[in-house]
Specification:
The protein is of the alpha+beta class. 46% of the residues lie in helices and 11% in strands. It has 18 helices and 14 strands. Strand 13 and strand 14 (397-400) form a beta hairpin. This is Glutamate--cysteine ligase.
Length: 533
């Protein structure tokens, strides 16, 4: 245990201070494709019974009209968040008229690229911004890649805990700046160790053979309809998925919030030749928001993001510039195909202990060499994480993945114990023990279990995915919502549709002018650091 972590845990061990640990917030965003009962992509529009994808706080769409995104409110206890996520799933399944929710991160069999429907958010200016942005994603990366699903885990430490640590450690300056830089330090630690999450929770070692659209690849054939890598943990996070080559090297290593914002601000302002060749319009219609490296900040496919809740019409960088970091969003988690809601409570408890450790442990500054090492370790864990005896690199020295992983769990253990002392029970310690078992026994990992299940289904990724989707649907339908809960969801859906209609009736000005105004809000002028370079 580092000296800084030991000192901070000692401060937080006092019962009065320990209570601060329970005041942070947690939230989950689960992506899932709607599919037909026979396992094909559902081509139907977003059901009105689900409400407005533009304005609903809990049920929306991501890239495709067929890709649902189910979002929990921020809660102090993730168990409450998972209970809400379960209720959202139960309502959604009842509202999609016999369709199923795909149980995997990698997509079901997809139709031809032009037939994959892009999400529609209505005719308001902000709705059209969201739609045109997704048209741009289709042109830049292909529609199939945008149908990959994941779990996003949102995590914050209570402001009052940061305030306590700032006072105890005698750090001058504003709480906002201290808190922001503390979150950036947590992100640095995350980047050094997030290979561990891929080993422990990666669950996409195989995919439908049609997904690659005849592109060259190094995957092996498992069956006529399935490709895989024998030791892979997460093809979703490999070069085949979200680690897009256009964005390789986009963000240099960053040690401060200003450096992070500077990189993003440059990317959303810097023209990119191939995108300039596409242009912004075809036949008078917008096909992408601009021709820059990134259309907007959210196009950057990061494994983790420092974030701040945005206000209506505000851009993410504006919010960070104006009010600092509020929470971190972990984006590299695969959908758990064995959990109906895509993530288990045990996984969430471990993430809470791990991310709290990231926030409290000493985090040395990073550089290009460290960043390259982090990326190499991550790629190894993604593509070969279950290979027996796999070696990673730590500060330039070889280290076995298993040994390093066990060392990290030992460092996280006192954090788990403190969280249990506050919450009562032993859920965090048991979650940690379950991860230790995976490091000792490779076959206990989700990727190994998924591959075993695929082989049991004749080597077919699609057959396994469809059976799990049907099982999950049966589970949800066997537990219908209570009448009061259902009425509340129906009322929320109706209110969001009405809100979208009000937005469409009340807007003024042209969409072209709106896009120009939106682009002008890139906050080069708001933060000196973001305008550098």
């Amino acid at each position: 245990m580092t000296d800084l972590l030991a000192r901070r845990l000692k401060i937080l061990a006092a019962p009065k201070q320990r209570a601060l640990l329970s005041r942070g917030l947690r939230g989950i965003e689960r992506e899932t494709l709607r599919i037909t009962p026979n396992g094909q992509l559902a081509m139907t529009p977003h059901a009105r019974a689900l409400g407005s994808a533009l304005t609903h706080p809990e049920i929306t769409t991501d890239y495709s009209e067929s890709l649902l995104e189910l979002i929990t409110p921020a809660q102090n206890d993730i168990a409450q968040g998972l209970a809400r996520l379960d209720a959202i799933h139960r309502y959604a399944v009842s509202a999609i008229d016999g369709e199923l929710l795909w149980s995997q991160s990698m997509p079901c069999p997809l139709p031809a690229e032009p037939e994959i429907p892009i999400a529609w958010y209505g005719t308001s200016h902000i709705g059209m911004i969201k739609h045109v942005y997704r048209r741009g994603l289709a042109l830049r990366y292909g529609r199939a890649m945008q149908c990959i699903a994941g779990i996003h885990y949102n995590f914050s430490v209570a402001d009052s805990l940061w305030r306590l640590l700032q006072a105890e450690e005698g750090v001058a300056g504003s709480l906002r700046d201290w808190q922001s830089e503390s979150y950036i330090a947590a992100v640095r630690t995350f980047h050094r160790t997030h290979w561990l999450l891929m080993y422990l929770f990666g669950a996409s070692p195989a995919l439908d053979a049609g997904f690659l659209r005849d592109k060259p690849h190094a995957l092996q054939t498992l069956s006529q309809d399935t490709l895989y890598l024998p030791w892979a943990t997460s093809l979703r996070m490999s070069d085949l998925g979200y680690q897009n080559n256009v964005q390789a090297g986009l963000m240099p290593p960053y040690n401060t919030l200003d450096e992070y914002m500077a990189g993003l601000a440059r990317a959303v302002r810097q023209p990119y030749g191939p995108y300039q060749d596409i242009g912004t319009r075809r036949d008078g219609e917008w096909v992408q928001l601009n021709t820059n490296v990134l259309q907007i900040e959210n196009e950057y496919y990061a494994a983790i993001r420092p974030k701040r809740v945005i206000r209506p019409g505000e851009r993410p960088l504006e919010a960070l510039c104006a009010r600092g970091v509020q929470y971190i969003e972990v984006r590299c988690m695969d959908v758990d195909p064995f959990s109906p809601v895509g993530i288990s409570l045990e996984t969430a408890r471990f993430l809470d202990a791990y991310l709290t450790w990231c926030a409290l442990v000493d985090s040395p500054r990073t550089d290009e060499a460290q960043s390259a090492e982090n990326s190499a370790n991550f790629r190894l864990a993604v593509n070969e994480g279950r290979r027996p005896g796999l070696m990673l690199s730590r500060m330039g020295q070889p280290v076995a993945l298993r040994d390093w992983g066990l060392e990290l769990l030992e460092q996280i253990a006192p954090v788990a114990e403190l969280l249990d002392a506050e919450a009562g029970g032993d859920e965090h310690r048991r979650a940690l023990a379950a991860q230790r078992d995976k490091l000792i026994e490779i076959d206990a990992t989700p990727s190994a279990r998924a591959l075993e299940a695929i082989r049991a289904h004749g080597g077919s990724f699609v057959a396994f995915g469809l059976e799990q989707s049907r099982r999950h649907a049966e589970d949800f339908r066997a537990r219908p919502l209570h009448p009061g809960e259902r009425l509340a969801f129906e009322a929320m859906a109706g209110a969001t549709l009405a809100e979208q209609e009000r937005m469409e009736r009340g807007q003024s000005g042209s969409f072209d002018d709106y896009i120009q105004q939106y682009a002008a809000r890139t906050p080069a002028q708001l933060c000196a650091g973001a305008g550098a370079g």
